[in-house]
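Marked as duplicate of an earlier ticket. Keeping the data here for the record.
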Amino acid sequence: MNMVDLHVHSNKSDGSFTPSQLVAYALEKGLSAFALTDHDTTDGIAEAMAAAEAAARGGRAVQVIPGIEFSTEYHGRDIHIVGLYIDCDSEFFKRRLVNFVKGRDIRNREMCRRLTECGFPVSYEELTAEFPGCVITRAHYARFMLKKGYVKTLKEAFDRYIGDGCPCFVPRKKITPMRAVEIILKSGGFPILAHPLLYHMSSCELEELVATLKEIGLQGLEALYSTYSAQDERTMRALAAKYDLCISGGSDFHGTAKPGLDLATGYGRLFVPEEILDHINERRKWMLSHPGALRKTKILFTDLDGTLLDSKKQISSYTREVLHAWADAGHKLVLCSGRDINSVTDVKNDLALDLPGMYLIGYNGGQIYDCQKKKTIYKTALTIPQTLHILHMAAQAGVHVHTYSDTHILASRDNEEMHYYRRVIKTPVLFSPDMETLVRTEPCKCLAIELKDAQKLENFRLSLVPWAEENKISMIYSNPYYLEFFPAASGKGAAVLKLCELLGIHPYFSVAAGDAQNDLSMIEAAGMGIAMCNGSEDVKMAATTVTACDNDHDGLAQALVDLI
């Protein structure tokens, strides 16, 4: 009986064999096929296929299956999704990998900085030169540190410096396994949950993951693996059968990087029969004949200024076209802002955006408005005493602060800060030196503005930290001049989860896009976070993708088109 290996790594990620050497070794081992599934890269596929073609011309045949192994994050765990039969040449797939590279670069440069600060000089340029053409992982850092004499063993590097929780480790914001499944499907591939038992989940936790992945389109589960016992294999086969998933299997061969683990046979007992691949190919035929069967409804939460809107507070014809395509595909659109809900409505009307499935979020998550039903469906607010305390402290500090009613902005006086704020805000204003006469309903937020002295505004914030912590109030800068106050239970991230709950949409199917600090919780809460390249560094670190262009050049639309 012919055998295959559907999980193999080359030196293009963290294996030791070149792709050509893998082909030669697969022939030596008698494999009829193997899948090259390097971590987050397909750089070795072309070389492996060329080597296989050359061997075939010499009368020796082995099939190379183009694949990838995505590293994803789920409930704090590192989950791997293998994709077989990836169309590496598709423009969609190439764009996705570019975004992975950007995310890795941001993380790797920060790790180099931290190592250097700890007394171990490592430049990103020197590191990549040491491992040319490789996806840089922590294993490469450890090898580099060992070569430089910074550590005595690879284990020491991980235990003291670059392991989880160590001072030089920087976690890279990863995509969810759900998003990895979607990317693989859209790239013509076959998504498989790799080595499920290695995640050390309870049976209930693992089944919940598998059920969720199945919902979005998972097609296979790795039930044959190098470290599995006979009982492990039976358990995984039963789980796959319960969710109608194909069986897959592979050695996870890394060459000398995993001593004792061999191609095809693992630690000596592994055998993956060719019929496993035959069943996968039967399922692939069905998938190719039903291209729309696995699409799911998504919901986009987008910030306005600096994200959706250009510097003239407009959107281009291309962005408008993409938003209409998004809605036409059945997806939902949510405009999110720190502005009051009346101002967000004005933006929607000025843009002439009247799409099905639209919602508005104002006050940084304090209010959610259903455009179709024309009513507020959720609201959270500061208490009146909390609001008056903020206003009183602002008056003492000489800082402008205003708040809101359901219909108006409420301020003590007209001033330079108010004129600046109302350059683009059309909501009417009520003025009174006695703010207690104006604040009659609980507002969603207060806004402090200081145009000339950033330190003055920061001092004001610092003076309120103990009180804000005691009262569970968030204080967040939405730009260098604006300091926002709102309930800690509010925030854009909380609004993402609340609206998903109200609509019955799993948060894993949500997308959030932003550029500023007040967008951070939204990006972290969503299944996929898009940071604008013109955004702050902390937003970029939190996001799963960074746009190629800024908000004046359709950055969001270009990132969004691949999600439709």
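See parent ticket for discussion. The chain has four domains: 3-95+175-289, 100-162, 299-380+490-563, 384-487.
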